[in-house]
Amino acid sequence: xxxSDFDKIDAVLHEFEGRKGSLIPILQKTQAQLxxxxxxxxxxxxxxxxxxxxxxxxxxTFYTQFRMHPIGKNIxxxxxxxxxxxxxxxxxxxxxxxxxxxxxxxxxxxxxxxxEEVACLGCCSLAPVIMVNDKAYGRLxxxxxxxxxxxx
Length: 152
Ligand code: FES
What we know:
By secondary structure, the protein is an alpha+beta fold. The chain has helices spanning 3-15, 23-34, 39-49, 53-62, 82-86, 89-100, 145-150, and strands at residues 74-79, 113-118, 130-132, 135-137. A four-stranded mixed beta sheet has the order 2-1-3-4, with helices on one face. Bound molecules: FE2/S2 (inorganic) cluster.
């Protein structure tokens, strides 16, 4: 971890100093700062907060919102909420995984994309939907995937 990463964690810890039960928000904010929670980051948080590293590890592995691996430059979220699921979201997922040569939750070798399957993205009328970073793409068909990825 870079020196600046330790500084970022220190700033997060400072924000929650003296507040009991803040482990989850500490981990959320640390992940927002660093992109993911490395073993080194968890160990550092443990040392500083005196929360056992086993407890921190238990929380990060229990909640799917936490990542323990670096993420790609662009995050693709594939909606698998009910509306999207019945509108062939599985086919969209397949097309994406094939095009990017990744597994669900995986990151491409060039670190350009990370793909996640999520619940409703809040724009069900456009099902099936994916989001690339903050931009939504709706009424998708597998054949549109290549053109969307080419924009990144
Ligand atoms: S179910 Fe996909 S956006 Fe709501």
